[in-house]
Amino acid sequence: MSTHYQAVVIGAGPGGYPCAIRLSQLGVKTLIIDKQYIGGVCLNVGCIPSKALINAAHTYEKLTHADEMGFTIDGDIGIDMSKIQRWKDGVVTKLTGGVGQLLKGNKVDVLMGEAKFSGANALTVTNADGEQTITADHIVVATGSTPVQIPGFAYADAPVLDSTKALSLTEVPKHMVIIGGGYIGLELGSLYAKLGANVTVVEMMKQVLPSFDKDVINALKRKLKKDGVKILLKTKALGWEQADNGIVVHVETPKGKESLEADNVLVTVGRRPNSKGLGLEDIGVNFDGPFISVDKQMKTNVPGVYAIGDVVGQPMLAHKATHEGELVAEVIHGKNVQFDAKAIPAVVFTDPEIAVVGLTENQCKEQGRAVKVGKVPFAAIGKAIANNATDGFTKVIIDADTKLILGVTIVGSHASDMISEASLAIEMCAEALDVGLTIHAHPTLGEAVMEAAKAALGEAIHIINR
User: Fold this and answer.
1) Which one of the listed residues 4, 319, 333, 442 is annotated catalytic?
2) DSSP 8-31
3) pLDDT at 349
4) pLDDT tier at 286 (50, 70, 90 boundaries)?
5) Is 462 a catalytic residue?
6) pTM for the full predicted model
7) 153 within some domain
C-alpha cells in the first residue's frame, strides 16, 4: 500500500464510500480509511438493519391479520428473534460485502484503522499493526455521527440501549421504555410493539416529531395507539435503577413523578457529529458549534481539507451524505460544481411511513406564504384499498400565485418510495399542473401525488374539491 495518495477519505459510510468510488472513477488515486467497518453506521448498525427488522415486524403483523383476507393459520405464530437477527445480519453482510467489492472493483485502496491529522496534508493511522503516516493532496472527512448520551443513562449498562444495541436484541422485551420521540425512537418503538412488547415513549416536547404538521402526527398516533404504544409528552427522564424483575425508569410528568417498569430503556435523543478527536483543531479547521464549517463545495477553511455528511450539519441523513460525497469528488477532480439542492427528502419509517420534501404546511404559515393545499386520503386510492393500506394521505402544497410546488408530505404505506417523484418536482421547479397532467399508471399508490396536485388547484376527480 502506498503512503501518498491524491485523495484520502476518512470514513467508509454512505458519504465516504461513494466519494472514494467516484474519485477513483475520475482517475484520482484514492485511499479510504475506516476504524470499524465498511459501510459505516448506516449499512451495519443503522438504516439497513433497522429496515430489515421493521420489515420482519410488518410481516408478522400481516400474518396475524391474514384471516381478514381469507387465510387460515392454525395455532400461534411464533417469533424466533435469534433467527430474525441471523436473517437481518445476512442482509447486512450482503450489502457491506457488495460495497467492499465495489471499492475493490474501482481500485480504491482500503485501510482499517483510526486516522488523525498530523498536518494539513498528513494523517497518522493507528491499527493493530501499529502506526503509519499517510500523506495526500486532498483529505475528505466523512466520519459520521454517534448517539447522544444523557446523564443517568450510560450505554455501558446492559439494560440501557442505544440504537445499535436495540437492533441486536435476541429476545423481544416484555416492557420497553424509549426516551425520545424522534424518528429513531418511534421507528424502533413501533417495531418492538408489533412484535409484542409493551412500549412507552417518553418525550420532553409537547409533540412527538415536533417539526411535522399536526395532521401527520394525528395519523401516526392513531396507529401507535392501535399497536399499544403509550406516549408521555412533556415528560423528563430522571434515571433508572435495578428492580427484582428488570428495571424501573423514573420520569417526571406534568402530573408529577412516575416510575415505569421495563426490561430495557432505549435512549434516542439525537446524534452528535464525530468531528472531535481527529486533530482538526490542531490544523486550524473552523467549526460551527460541533459541526465542521464548509462552503458549498464542501471545502473547509484549510486548503486541501474537506468534510461531508453528518459532521457538517443538518439534516443528518445518509442520502445527503452520499450526494455530498459524489459532489466533493467532482470538486477535487477540478469541476466547478457546488451543493445546490432545492430540497432534501426526509423519511420516518414508522407505520404508517412519513415522507416529506420541501416546505411543510406549518413552515409556510410561519413564513407568511400564501399557499393552496391539495390533500388526498389513501382511502380514495384504489391500489391502497386493494393493499388493505388506507391509513394516511398525500398532501401537495403550492404557491397560491405561481402554482409552483413548494412541498409534499406523504403519510402511508410506501411513502418512502413515493417521495422521490415529489423531490424531482421541486428540484425542477414544477407547477402543480406539471404533476397533475402527467399520466400516472393505474392502479398505483403514486396516483395520490397526481390527485393531490390537482386537488391543490381544485381539479381533483376522486375526492370532493374544497
Assistant:
1) 442
2) EEE--STTHHHHHHHHHHTT--EE
3) 97
4) very high
5) no
6) 0.95
7) no
